Amino acid sequence: MLHIRPFERTVDNYDRVVQLHNAVWPDHLTAVGEWQHLDRTRDPKYFYQRVLVELNGQVVGYAIYQEPSWSYKPGKYFVMAAVHPDHEGHGVGNALYEHMLAALAPRQPRVLASTTRENYAKAIRFLEGRGFTQVMRFPISELEVDAFNPAPYQGLSHQLASQGVHVRSIAQLKAMEPQWKHQLHELINEVLEDVPSPDPITMESFEQFDQQRLNSPRFLPEGYFVAMEGGRMVGLSALWKNEVDPHKLHTGLTGVRRSHRRRGICTALKVRAIQYAKAYGAKVIETDNEEHNPMFQINLQLGFKAQPAMLEFSKELDSQSA
């Protein structure tokens, strides 16, 4: 018998939901500490709910339904359901989906968004069978660090230095720039304006950015690089830890101010990050980009290899279906 219950922040529940996540997404392993940190620092002004589903007393899945704080739009909700592979095909996913619809109904949702990966055929069929359509594609790409050839880029840092642009890590800047956090926050907000998204990206407040991003257990100040021109940040490329696999790093946001593009700054930042990853002992760097984003082509030129993409889906709701 199926039973759906709210997620309570107990050690046992965190262990269960992380085990479930890692079973469903073996290419995207996470750790309990990361989930706990996100829950502690989540912006309370956005609706968020997580539930667990039990089958005969055993937790076999979970669901999350929320206002997307990263791309807020009134009436838009992000929904996702994960079912342990051993329990697929028994109606668990459908029960979670119907539960989310019923729970959201009083809020009168107008749009539902969800994601999956293009090699997860069952998940795609699940979404399409319920009226979702694909709206965006984000190829994941990976670089084998030891295979990277730095030779074509040896003169790039000197070229930029002659123009007054220098690459520094956040670990270095902490001692040099008292306002580094505010500068970084401002730079990120400008760069995010040009990141492809189905709906405009919602900018984080400085307080939320400081609390959730800069205090994350995955934050790696030695591997978080910015390009400086004088005392101003003009570009960034951030590496983040993988709490489960010490031989894997993840590239977060990479970008340059519009006024400083087409000068090789992005490439120089990426090369510096790859050099750091090698010294760190990482074997793989993983990232993702919207397929038409120029950053995707830069990554491919550097030697990143495309992997199955993340797909974003959307569903318009009418008053009857809501």
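(ticket continues) Second input and output from the same batch:
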Amino acid sequence: MPHLLSLIREDISNVMEHDPAAKSRFEVFLCYSGLHAIWFYRINHWFWNHRFFLIGRLFSQFARLLTGIEIHPGAKLGRRLFIDHGMGVVIGETTIVGDDVTLYQGVTLGGTGKEHGKRHPTLEDNVVVGGGAKILGNITVGKNCRIGAGSVVLRNVPENSTVVGVPGHIIFREGKRVVITDPKQINDPLSEALASVATEVHKLRDRVQRLEGSEPEHEPVHPSLQGIMDDLDYQI
């Protein structure tokens, strides 16, 4: 019990430090849904660790109804996590969050498929994730990183970096500007997929024509699709 009370005091102090809108500790205790979600999570996480899986999941759904924040009881959250506003925040089962992390409304720490095992991101200490950002898959965001609002991060991010965009790309690293001189250096998974499909279609067409005994006829490719195929060589 003393440990639990000290954690509650620490959480309230953390909110007072991060949110200039907080007027009193009593207000924080009563009115901050991000704080309530974290307290619910700690109870649910205890049930989960003691193999009361259904109870942990059931209470996590109850917490979501009350706070608008969904935290899977299997996630591992560090100390002094600050969820500002919080509506729409989703934290997946195998997510790992370090200490002193800040998440704004609409953030998703999610997976990208149906694979088992570690499938959600790891956020190291002192990471700030802007509103609406999506960090997806078994990737690691290093210490002291900043993820811009609305960004979609699909790859590992080194320490002390700032990431923006869809898909996310680094614009600052170790306090220095990362200059992208060619827009094609920004990886676009959709373009890669379309170019791959177009390449396979051309190979299959040539093969069918050879089997039919005729010479392959290379029809002109639509300019927009040709642009995607040309860009593929420059993707990172």
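Agent notes: The mean pLDDT is 84. The first helix runs from residue 2 to 18. Closing as not reproducible unless the customer responds.
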